[in-house]
């Protein structure tokens, strides 16, 4: 934040000049998405290709799934955001540095903002995504700049009697 001196950062600076803050925000949204799953209804018959073929109980190898019109689909956002298949063995650890490294993981297969499903993607993407990201960054900056650090004693708080 010292790079901005005594002036408030602009929208562009906030969203492009603070890479570690950006990494912390994305790591937080990966591990703790505000919505754990999304529900969608198939508007027409469709076939979903599978990245990895699945062998059924009968021994048949399946490369795709048929989805009939009207089928309710649940997108497990939180589960996919911490899947070791996509994010590696440290997927469940808070490690913001992953966002500053070269992306060589299968997470690249996930469409969406920074390969996260936190805001979904496509025509039903979150309209407030950029506002939410900016608000998150501003709150972290203000917290760092103006909040005195203190420890709460472990114990009980007495209820106020009226």
Automatic annotation (TrEMBL):
Its main location: membrane. It comes from the Eukaryota. Transmembrane segments: none annotated. One of its GO terms (cellular component) is membrane. Pathway: Secondary metabolite biosynthesis; terpenoid biosynthesis. Keywords: Heme, Iron, Membrane, Metal-binding, Monooxygenase, Oxidoreductase, Transmembrane, Transmembrane helix. It is found in: Membrane. SUPFAM superfamilies: Cytochrome P450. GO terms for molecular function: heme binding; iron ion binding; monooxygenase activity; oxidoreductase activity, acting on paired donors, with incorporation or reduction of molecular oxygen. Its cofactor is heme. Belongs to the cytochrome P450 family. This is Cytochrome P450. It comes from Armillaria tabescens. The lineage of its organism: Eukaryota, Fungi, Dikarya, Basidiomycota, Agaricomycotina.
